[in-house]
Here is the input.
Amino acid sequence: MLWQDLPLDLQQRLLTASLGARAHSHSPYSRYAVGAAILDDEGRVHVGANIENAAYPQGWCAEATALGAMVMAGGRRARAVLVSGPGPDIITPCGGCRQKLREFGAADLLIIAADPGGIRQHWTLEQLLPFSFGPEHLNKP
Ligand code: ZN
Here is the structure.
């Protein structure tokens, strides 16, 4: 989905959902709360936050939580994802999450960065994960 195809009201809906999810972050170690809101191809929004663990590597990212929520709701195609952090630095999905998003998003999956002050920047998945490996490499549509 192209940035110009995402109406202002939908941008606002994703921003509100992501910041709302961010408030549920379990991040007592990093104190870096992250929220994610995924728009699926049916127009539904699925949210998640980062969930840390005392055994550090066992924690996971907000995008992973939101993808899990989407899959459990029956969604399989993501059109846009809005990730929100504390700011002021622009947040981007980590490498692992870029690959996780690749499983459920096309090259034009819209990735939007935000913080409590609003939307800061946007990219396509192709821009953040060029020459990527995906389901079609295994002949899985
Ligand atoms: Zn991540």
